[in-house]
Specification:
heterodimer, A: about 425 residues, mainly beta, 16-stranded antiparallel β-sheet, B: about 210 residues, alpha+beta, 5-stranded antiparallel β-sheet, 3-stranded antiparallel β-sheet, about 10% helix, elongated
Chain lengths: ~425, ~210
């Protein structure tokens, strides 16, 4: 009777992350972005052949010089995850957190299908433009709904549900005392060094192996999306040391959806028309260039520190005219000959979830364009497409950041 | 089999408990549970819900790695604990500092910052708060204490045989425990806790 083997499905895996408060002390992961293909755990050994004179031609032995861990993590981030990973990439103290402008509570319970709510304070609710608020944040009754200010009354105040949301009615019941809040704001900018993070990668859970990697830092992150697609992050990290876990983590997922490319609003080189409407894909790649050579008395690294920062932008546009070629190579939109002048632009790009509450905005103040590749003619007659390349610069130290990411979500504390 | 303890979710936003990485039992406020023996994997949990989780996920765990890399690494236990031979620094005649313990090879893992252990009635929550403070990023349990659901005080009525119910008392950092035998001092196999997780990336830690 043949003995069957027991293979393990290649999708029986999870990737978990947690922020460490101090180097050398791992933390059990609490964030588990849903990984996609391209994610990988890589254990590298640098080894040395040891040749000793024993009269033979044979290699004596091999020793390990260094063992290191690299992780590639590809995923489509949710609103609460995106702030976490932006803070990871940007560095220590990168999150300038602002509490919600609207931060009050329900003065009385509201039923499902209610057309208004009663709130204790009207701070932030005195305008007349629809506003998205989260009711009962963090509880089983959490609901993001749209309301139409102003809140009326002398306190408590009555705030009506906007007609554009669920026909003007709440979906769920909410209890008296439940919170009523607008989105929290996380303005995240590049810093001098990064925090350490713990990563945990399961390859087959306890049937396979679960490796927890301490003291990871972000080597690079590429934020990208293409027409009709989903905003995707590709992180590369370097870790220091591993321990194998005896049991699988309690895997928990953010319940929100991902950011769709078609929700993007572009301001490209100061304009919202023209090429700002012609982008069919983009990527913003940040490289922290960490020093991964700090090894002292152990087989593994002793520390990792960030090196020089680079933020490169790649944009693919539908070719509308020769303006980018003229600007990048010939000194300006009406340039006619080779020019020393670097064409400078800028970028503001915002993605918003359908709830109009959770959003992410990328802001680059100065983009030095280095490439506007002339498109190649093709006999198939399809539209010309033109790749553009640019690099974010400090503009002689005038800019306080190379990249600023602003995240609005329901995480009510700094990352 | 990992020992399970009840832990309350204290995160900012609801999360979906995966159903693909093993069964999970607990109590969900939304369903009015009064015991912890309900299957809740695959469901959304929110602040105040209780999940039976491996103790080390909530309380953390301690590993010991030989600084000379001669002996295999050991998983010492749940929480932050040390071996008896490291209880006192013989030179200073005082407990080792955390940094000194790390230099001796200890690796202290913190628990999840978005869960806190459920404190049975009558126990002071201060120790819990202190530990949560060490798990930086988690909210203080004050809110959780005031909204602690009734099920927190009750033990499960009927638990699956594989589970061990109960509450594991908080251990302060550097609490002394009976450590598993090290390879240098005891060549006999420790069948209760054979382990080999080393910085060299070797494999498996089992309990």
């Amino acid at each position: 009777m043949p003995t069957l083997i027991v293979p393990i499905r290649s999708d029986r895996a999870y990737v978990g992350v947690a922020k460490q408060t101090v180097g050398g002390t791992p933390v059990t992961p609490n964030m588990f972005p849903r990984w996609v293909d391209g994610s990988a755990l890589q254990l590298d050994v640098k080894a040395e052949d040891v040749w000793e004179g024993d009269g033979s031609r044979r290699l004596s032995s091999i020793i390990k010089n260094l063992q290191e861990v690299k992780i590639k993590h590809v995923f489509m981030p949710r609103p609460n995850e995106i702030g976490f990973f932006e803070a990871m990439a940007m560095g220590n103290g990168s999150d300038a957190y602002t509490a919600p402008a609207v931060n009050t509570t329900l003065s009385s319970a509201s039923l499902a299908n209610a057309t208004s709510i009663s709130v204790g304070a009207n701070t932030g609710l005195t305008g007349s433009t629809n506003i998205s608020l989260v009711l009962s944040a963090g509880t089983a009754r959490e609901e993001i709904a749209v309301f139409l200010p102003p809140a009326t009354g002398a306190g408590p105040y009555v705030l009506n549900v906007a007609s554009t949301y669920n026909g003007g009615k709440l979906l769920y019941a909410h209890s008296s005392g439940d919170t009523v809040q607008s989105a929290s704001s996380h303005v995240i900018t590049d810093q001098t060094d990064g925090n350490y993070y713990t990563y945990e990668v399961s390859l087959g859970d306890t049937a396979g192996i679960i490796v927890r990697v301490r003291d990871c830092k972000c080597v690079s992150v590429k934020r990208s999306a293409k027409a009709g697609g989903i905003l995707t992050y590709e992180l590369e990290l370097q870790g220091i040391a591993c321990t194998v876990q005896a049991s699988a983590a309690t895997v928990t997922y953010d319940t929100h959806g991902y950011f769709l490319y078609d929700s993007g609003v572009w301001t490209l080189d100061g304009g919202t028309t023209g090429y700002a409407l012609a982008v069919d894909s983009f990527d913003i790649e940040q490289k922290n260039n960490p020093d991964t050579s700090i090894q002292t008395e152990s087989l593994v690294l002793a520390a990792i520190i960030y090196g020089n920062l680079s933020v490169d932008v790649g944009i693919s546009v539908i070719y509308l005219d020769g303006s980018y070629i003229s600007k990048v190579y010939f000194g300006g939109a009406t340039g006619t000959a080779d020019s020393q002048t670097i064409y400078q632009g800028n970028l503001t790009l915002t993605f918003t979830l359908a709830d109009n509450f959770n959003s992410v905005t990328y802001n680059i103040l100065t983009l030095d364009y280095t490439k506007a590749e002339p498109p190649a003619p093709k006999k198939d007659g399809k539209a010309f497409r033109q790749p553009l390349s640019a690099t974010s610069v400090s503009n002689f130290s005038q800019n306080p950041y190379l990249l600023q990411t602003t995240v609005n979500n329901t995480t009510f504390s700094a990352y | 089999m990992a020992q399970l303890i009840p832990a309350r979710y204290i995160g900012d936003y609801p999360v979906h408990l995966s159903s693909e990485h093993g069964k999970r039992h607990g109590a969900r406020l939304a369903e009015g549970h009064t015991t912890y023996d309900h299957r809740i994997d695959g469901k959304v949990i929110s602040k105040g819900d209780i999940v039976l989780m491996p103790a080390e996920d909530v309380l953390g765990q301690t590993f010991w790695h030989d600084p000379a890399h001669n002996q295999p690494s050991l998983r010492i236990g749940v929480g932050h604990v040390i071996m008896p031979q490291h209880a006192v620094n013989p030179v200073a005649n005082a407990p080792y500092s955390r940094e000194e313990l790390q230099a001796l090879g200890y690796e202290f893992h913190m628990g999840r910052p978005d869960f806190e252990p459920v404190v049975p009635d009558g126990e002071a929550p201060a120790a819990n708060n202190a530990r949560i403070g060490k798990n930086s990023g988690s909210k203080a349990s004050a809110t959780a204490a005031t909204t602690q659901p009734a099920p927190a005080a009750e033990q499960p009525q009927e638990m699956p045989d594989a589970y061990v119910s109960g509450y594991f008392a908080d251990v302060e950092p550097a609490a002394v425990v009976d450590a598993p035998a090290t390879a240098a001092s005891d060549t006999a196999t420790d069948t209760a806790n054979t382990a080999a997780a080393s910085d060299d990336g070797a494999a498996t830690v089992k309990e």
